[in-house]
C-alpha cells in the first residue's frame, strides 16, 4: 500500500520528489541476442534517456541471450537488491520456466512497468502465395510440410505455429533459429516458406520487397497508417481472423528490477520509464516497429501479468510444451 | 651500419637447476589424464542417454550428438591409455622436475588465492594483494616498489574498466565503503 | 568498381577523431601485448576484448583489429632482438633476424620485418577488398545444410591434415564439441549436461576457455622455464629505414611469393605458422646461395614475415564470410562479433555493410599507422622486457581474470578460467593440441544446430547434404579431407612408382 502511494506521488510530482537516484551506471539486461527486438528496444531507451538527460548515470546495454534468454533471468534472480539492473522482459518469463524447468518465477522480481505490446505477423517470401487462403491451400497441397522459421524452441513463435496447424489443418516443420533476424534472412533466401516474426524483425526485408506480410495475429489491425513500403502501411495488413484463421497472440514488453529493492528505487524507475514513454524517440520507435502502446505500473501491472501468465500457461499446456 | 649500443640482459636468480630430479613422468600424467577423460566421458554419456539420445521423426534428439561424442571421447581416451601404458614400460620422459614443479606452484597457488580473494573482497583488492604479494614474496623485489606497482596498476585498471569503459567488475566491502 | 565505392564509404565511416584515437590506443596496446612474455596475439586480444563491449561494433572491431596488428608487429621485436619468438609464426623470423641483430644490424632487420609485415598484410587486404563483394552475392544461398557442410569441412580438415597423433586430435575435438553442447539446446529448448547447476545453464563460453587455455597456462609454462634473457637494444634511424626501402625492389620475387603463399594458407585453414615456414623455405630453395640463410640474410626476414602477415590477415576473410576462423586470433574476433551481436557469415556483408567496410578500411589505415608507430617506438617497447617477470606475471593474471569476468559478468567464469589454465598446461605438456578444442568450442553448437535444422527441413533425410551443387561439393570435399592421410598414402604409392621410374632413367 505504501508502495502504491509512493508510486502515485512519483508519477504526479516528478521534479519536486527528491528520492533515490542511481549512483552507478545502470545496466539494461536484454534476454536475447543482439539485433533482436529486445536489443533494439534497449538501445532506443538508452538513446532516449541520454539525449533527454533523464538520468545522470550512463546506461549500459548488456546482452544475456545465452540459453535462449535463461541467462538473463538467472542473472536478474541472482542480483537481488541491486537497483542498477533493469530487465527488458517478454513472454519468456512465463514460458521458459515451463518448457525448460528453469528455477525462475517472475514474481521474485520487482515489476516496474509494461511499456509495449508486440504483434506477430505471418510472413512468406514475396515469390510465394499472396493471401492466407492461398498460403494454407499451398501448405496442404505440398508434398513435404512447409518450413516455418521462428526464434527458439517451445516459445511464442513455436506456440503460434502449433495453433496455426490446429486451426488450418495444414502441417508445418518448425525451424528454431537463434534470432528473428536469422529467421528473416532464411526466409528471404527461400530456405523456409514462412515465418511468424515480430514486425520489427522483418521490417527491413519487407521494405526491400523480399517478404510479404499475410496477416497479423491480433483482434484488430495495427493502427499505424503511414506507408512503410511504396504501397503498404502496417494498417493494410489484415488480421488473421479476417482471413478465416482465428489465432491471436500479443507479447508483452515490460521492465523489471531485481527482487528486494526499496520502494524509492522502484519509484525512480517507474518515473524514469514514464518519462521515456513521453519522448519523441519512444513514439518514433513504437511506430517504426509497429508496437502497441501501453503503460501499466503498480497494481495494474501485476494484475495484467497474472492474467497474461495464465493465458500463456494454458497455451503452452495445450501445445504440449510443458516439461514433465 | 646501425648502432647496437647496448645489450639488454635480464638475469633470473631463481632459475631451476638443470639436474633437479623428476617428480612425475609424462607417461604417468598421460595415463592419469586419459583416466579422467574416460570418467568424464562416462558421466556425460550417461547424462545424455537420460536426456534422450535416439533419432526421432524430426532428426536427432538433444542428447544424440553429445552421447555419441562421449562415446568417441571415451574410445579415443581408451586408445590413448593403451598407447601410454605400452610406451610407459619403455621410456620415462620427464613431465616436470621438482624445481620446475616448485616454480609452477609459485604461480599457481597465488593465482588460486587471487581467485578466492576476488570472490570475497572484489577484484581490485585481490589484484592489489596478488601483485604486491607476488612481487615481494616470489620476485624478492623491494617492498616499496611492489606496493607502488600494485597500487598504480590496480588504479589504472579501475579507471579504465569501471570508469572509462563502463565494464563493471566484481567489488567487495572496500569499494562499497567508498560508494561504488 | 563496386568494391572501390564501398571502400571509400568505409573510410568515411572511419575518419573521425574518436575512431582514430581508438586505433592508436589499440595499436599501442597490441604492440605491448606482443612484446610481453607470456602474452601474445590470441590471448592478448581475448583479454582486451572486454574493453570493446560497450562500444558500437564498428569502433570495437577497429580497436580490436588494431590490437591484432600491434601484436603482430610486437612479435617481430622480440624475435629479432631477443631470439624469443612471441608467436609460433615468428619462429622463422628468428633464423636470420637474430643473427642480424648479433652482427649489429638490428635496426635493419627490424625495418625489414616491419616493412614486410606491412606488405604482406596489404596484399591480403587487397585480396579481401576484391573478394568481399563476391561473397555477398552468394550469401543468400546459404541455408542450414550449406552451413553444416562448411563446418564439417573445417572439422574434417583439422583431423585429416593435423600433424599431431590422430587420437589426441580426436580427444581434443570431441571434448570441445561436448563442452560446447553444455547448457540449453536451442533446437529442442531442453537443458542438457547442466546437472541442475544454474551456472552451467549459460554454457561454457569459449572466450573464457581461451583466456584460461592460452593466458593462464602460458604463465605456468613460462614460469617453469628459465627466465633469463639476453638481447640487443636498437633504435631505428631514418637513414636505415630509407636504405632498406631502397633495396626493396630487389626482393620483389620473394615478397610476392611469400604474399601468395600467405594469402592461400590464410584462407584455407593452414594458418600463419605453416605460411611463415613455407615462405622461408621457398626463399631459401630458390636462392642462388642457400647456405647464406640462417647467418643474417635480410631475405630470411622478408620471406617469413610477409607470409605470416599475409596469412594472418587473409584468415579474416573466411571468418567474416563464413564464420570460420582461419587462426586463433580470428577465432577471438569471431567471439567478439557475437558479443556485439553480429552474426558472422555471408549475410554479414549484406546486413552490416558499414561494419564490414569499416573493418576493411581500418586494415589499410591501421597498417600504415602501425608501421610508422612501430618504427619510431622500438626502443621503448624493447625495454619492456627489462621489467622483471615477477611483476609482469601477476599483472597478466589480473588482466586474464578481468577479461574472463567481463564476458558474462560471472564469478564462476573466473574459476572456469583457472580450471582451463590447468587443463591447457597439462595438455600442452603431453601433446594434446589445443587448436581443435577451441575450434570445436566455437563452432560446435552452430554445427549441431545447422545439422538438426537441416534434418527437420528434410524430414530426416541425409541426402539433403548432396541436394545441390554447392552443398554437395563442400560435403564431398570434407569427407575427402577427413580421409586425407589414407588418400595421400594411395597417391604416394602411385608417386613412388613414378619416382623410381624417374631415378632409373
Supply the key terms.
heterotrimer, A: about 325 residues, alpha/beta, six-stranded mixed beta sheet, 11 helices, C: about 500 residues, mainly alpha, two-stranded antiparallel ribbon, 22 helices, 3 strands
User: Could you tell me the number of beta strands of chain B?
Assistant: 5
Mean pLDDT of chain B: 84
Structural class of the helix and strand makeup of chain B?
mainly alpha
Strand order of the largest sheet of chain B: 2-5
Largest protein-protein interface: B-C, 81 and 86 residues
Low-confidence stretches of chain B: 1-5
What is the average of the pLDDT values of chain A?
Answer: 87
What is the ordering of alpha helices and beta strands of chain A?
Answer: HEHEHEHEEHEHEHEHEEHHEH
How can the largest sheet of chain B be summarized? Answer: 2 strands, antiparallel
Distance from first to last alpha carbon of chain A: 38 Å
Q: Helix/strand/pairing class of chain A, anyone?
A: alpha/beta
Main sheet attributes: strand count, strand direction, barrel closure of chain A: 6 strands, mixed
Shape, principal axes of CA atoms of chain A:
globular
Q: What's the helical proportion of residues of chain A? A: 40-55%
Oligomer status: heterotrimer
Tally of contiguous helical segments of chain B? 6
Using only CA atoms, what is the Rg of chain A? 20 Å
Compressed to H and E, one letter per element, the order of chain B equals EEHEEHEHHHH
- Give the low-confidence spans of chain A: 1-17
Q: What Rg of chain B is obtained from the alpha carbons, in whole angstroms?
A: 25 Å
Shape of chain B: flat
Amino acid at each position: 500500500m505504501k508502495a502504491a502511494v509512493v508510486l502515485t506521488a512519483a508519477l504526479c510530482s516528478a521534479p519536486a520528489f527528491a528520492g533515490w537516484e542511481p549512483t552507478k551506471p545502470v545496466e539494461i539486461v536484454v534476454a536475447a541476442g543482439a539485433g533482436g527486438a529486445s536489443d533494439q528496444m534497449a538501445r532506443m531507451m538508452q538513446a532516449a534517456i541520454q539525449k533527454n538527460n533523464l538520468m545522470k548515470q550512463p546506461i549500459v546495454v548488456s546482452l544475456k541471450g545465452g540459453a535462449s534468454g535463461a541467462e538473463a533471468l538467472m542473472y536478474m534472480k541472482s542480483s537481488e537488491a541491486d537497483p542498477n539492473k533493469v530487465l527488458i522482459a517478454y513472454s519468456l518469463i512465463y514460458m521458459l520456466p515451463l518448457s525448460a524447468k528453469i528455477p525462475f518465477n517472475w514474481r521474485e522480481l520487482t515489476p516496474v512497468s509494461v511499456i509495449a505490446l508486440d504483434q506477430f505477423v505471418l510472413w512468406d517470401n514475396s515469390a510465394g502465395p499472396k493471401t492466407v487462403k492461398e498460403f494454407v491451400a499451398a501448405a496442404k497441397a505440398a508434398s513435404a510440410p512447409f518450413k516455418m522459421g521462428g526464434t527458439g524452441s517451445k516459445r511464442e513463435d513455436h506456440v503460434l505455429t502449433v495453433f496455426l496447424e490446429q486451426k488450418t489443418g495444414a502441417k508445418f516443420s518448425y525451424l528454431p533459429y537463434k534470432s528473428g533476424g536469422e529467421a528473416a534472412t532464411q526466409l528471404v533466401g527461400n530456405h523456409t516458406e514462412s515465418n511468424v516474426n515480430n514486425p520489427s524483425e522483418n521490417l527491413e526485408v519487407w521494405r526491400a520487397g523480399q517478404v510479404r506480410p499475410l496477416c497479423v495475429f491480433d483482434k484488430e489491425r495495427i493502427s499505424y497508417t503511414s506507408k512503410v513500403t511504396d504501397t503498404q502501411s502496417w494498417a493494410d495488413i489484415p488480421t488473421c481472423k479476417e482471413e478465416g484463421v482465428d489465432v491471436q497472440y500479443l507479447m508483452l514488453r515490460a521492465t523489471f528490477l531485481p527482487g528486494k529493492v526499496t520502494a524509492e528505487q522502484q519509484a525512480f524507475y517507474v518515473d524514469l520509464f514514464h518519462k521515456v514513454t513521453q519522448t519523441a524517440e519512444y513514439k518514433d520507435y513504437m511506430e517504426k516497429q509497429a508496437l502497441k502502446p501501453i503503460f501499466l505500473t503498480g497494481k495494474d501491472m501485476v494484475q495484467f501479468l497474472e492474467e497474461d501468465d495464465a493465458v500463456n500457461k494454458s497455451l503452452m499446456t495445450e501445445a504440449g510444451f510443458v516439461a514433465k | 651500419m646501425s648502432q647496437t649500443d647496448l645489450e639488454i640482459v635480464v638475469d633470473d636468480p631463481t632459475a631451476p637447476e638443470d639436474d633437479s630430479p623428476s617428480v612425475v613422468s609424462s607417461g604417468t600424467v598421460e595415463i592419469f589424464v586419459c583416466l579422467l577423460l574416460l570418467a568424464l566421458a562416462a558421466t556425460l554419456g550417461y547424462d545424455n542417454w537420460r536426456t534422450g539420445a535416439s533419432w526421432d521423426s524430426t532428426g536427432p534428439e538433444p542428447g544424440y550428438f553429445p552421447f555419441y561424442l562421449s562415446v568417441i571421447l571415451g574410445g579415443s581416451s581408451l586408445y590413448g591409455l593403451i598407447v601410454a601404458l605400452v610406451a610407459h614400460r619403455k621410456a620415462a620422459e620427464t613431465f616436470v622436475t621438482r624445481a620446475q614443479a616448485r616454480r609452477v606452484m609459485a604461480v599457481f597457488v597465488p593465482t588460486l588465492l587471487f581467485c578466492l580473494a576476488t570472490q570475497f573482497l572484489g577484484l581490485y583488492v585481490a589484484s592489489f594483494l596478488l601483485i604486491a604479494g607476488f612481487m615481494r614474496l616470489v620476485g624478492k623485489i623491494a617492498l616499496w616498489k611492489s606496493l607502488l606497482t600494485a597500487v598504480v596498476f590496480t588504479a589504472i585498471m579501475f579507471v579504465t574498466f569501471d570508469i572509462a569503459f563502463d565494464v563493471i567488475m566484481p567489488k567487495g566491502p572496500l569499494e562499497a565503503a567508498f560508494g561504488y | 568498381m563496386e568494391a572501390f565505392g564501398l571502400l571509400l564509404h568505409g573510410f568515411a565511416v572511419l575518419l573521425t577523431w574518436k575512431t582514430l584515437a581508438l586505433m592508436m590506443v589499440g595499436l599501442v596496446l597490441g604492440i605491448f601485448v606482443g612484446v610481453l612474455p607470456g602474452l601474445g596475439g590470441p590471448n592478448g586480444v581475448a583479454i582486451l576484448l572486454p574493453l570493446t563491449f560497450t562500444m558500437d561494433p564498428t569502433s570495437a572491431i577497429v580497436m580490436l583489429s588494431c590490437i591484432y596488428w600491434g601484436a603482430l608487429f610486437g612479435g617481430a621485436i622480440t624475435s629479432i632482438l631477443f631470439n624469443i619468438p612471441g608467436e609460433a609464426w615468428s619462429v622463422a623470423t628468428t633464423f636470420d633476424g637474430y643473427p642480424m641483430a648479433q652482427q649489429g644490424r638490428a635496426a635493419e632487420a627490424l625495418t625489414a620485418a616491419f616493412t614486410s609485415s606491412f606488405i604482406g598484410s596489404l596484399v591480403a587486404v587487397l585480396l579481401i577488398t576484391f573478394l568481399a563483394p563476391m561473397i555477398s552475392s552468394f550469401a543468400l544461398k546459404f541455408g542450414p545444410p550449406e552451413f553444416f557442410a562448411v563446418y564439417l569441412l573445417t572439422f574434417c580438415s583439422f583431423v585429416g591434415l593435423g600433424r599431431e597423433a590422430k587420437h589426441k586430435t580426436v580427444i581434443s575435438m570431441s571434448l570441445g564439441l561436448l563442452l560446447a553442447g553444455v547448457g540449453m539446446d536451442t533446437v529442442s529448448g531442453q537443458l542438457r549436461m547442466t546437472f541442475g547447476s544454474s551456472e552451467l545453464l549459460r554454457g561454457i563460453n569459449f572466450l573464457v576457455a581461451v583466456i584460461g587455455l592460452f593466458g593462464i597456462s602460458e604463465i605456468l609454462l613460462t614460469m617453469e622455464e628459465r627466465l633469463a634473457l639476453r638481447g640487443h637494444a636498437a633504435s631505428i634511424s631514418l637513414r636505415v629505414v630509407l636504405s632498406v626501402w631502397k633495396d626493396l625492389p630487389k626482393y620483389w620475387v620473394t615478397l610476392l611469393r611469400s604474399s601468395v603463399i600467405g594469402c592461400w594458407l590464410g584462407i584455407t585453414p593452414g594458418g600463419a605458422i605453416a605460411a611463415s615456414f613455407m615462405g622461408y623455405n621457398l626463399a631459401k630453395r630458390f636462392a642462388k646461395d642457400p647456405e647464406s640463410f640462417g647467418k643474417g640474410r635480410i631475405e630470411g626476414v622478408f620471406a617469413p614475415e610477409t607470409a605470416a602477415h599475409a596469412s594472418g590477415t587473409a584468415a579474416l576473410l573466411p571468418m567474416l564470410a563464413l564464420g570460420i576462423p582461419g587462426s586463433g586470433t580470428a577465432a577471438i574476433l569471431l567471439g567478439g562479433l557475437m558479443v556485439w551481436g553480429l552474426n558472422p557469415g555471408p549475410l554479414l556483408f549484406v546486413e552490416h555493410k558499414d561494419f564490414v567496410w569499416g573493418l576493411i578500411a581500418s586494415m589499410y589505415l591501421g597498417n600504415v599507422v602501425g608501421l610508422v608507430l612501430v618504427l619510431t617506438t622500438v626502443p621503448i617497447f624493447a625495454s619492456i622486457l627489462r621489467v622483471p617477470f615477477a611483476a609482469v606475471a601477476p599483472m597478466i593474471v589480473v588482466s586474464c581474470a578481468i577479461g574472463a569476468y567481463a564476458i558474462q559478468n560471472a564469478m564462476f567464469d573466473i574459476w572456469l578460467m583457472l580450471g582451463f589454465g590447468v587443463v591447457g598446461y597439462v595438455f600442452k605438456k603431453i601433446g594434446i593440441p589445443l587448436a581443435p578444442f577451441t575450434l570445436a568450442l566455437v563452432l560446435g553448437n552452430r554445427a549441431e544446430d545447422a545439422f538438426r535444422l537441416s534434418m527437420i527441413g528434410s524430414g530426416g533425410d541425409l541426402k539433403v547434404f548432396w541436394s545441390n551443387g554447392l552443398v554437395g561439393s563442400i560435403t564431398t570435399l570434407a569427407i575427402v579431407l577427413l580421409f586425407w592421410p589414407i588418400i595421400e598414402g594411395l597417391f604416394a604409392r602411385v608417386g613412388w612408382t613414378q619416382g623410381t621410374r624417374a631415378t632409373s632413367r
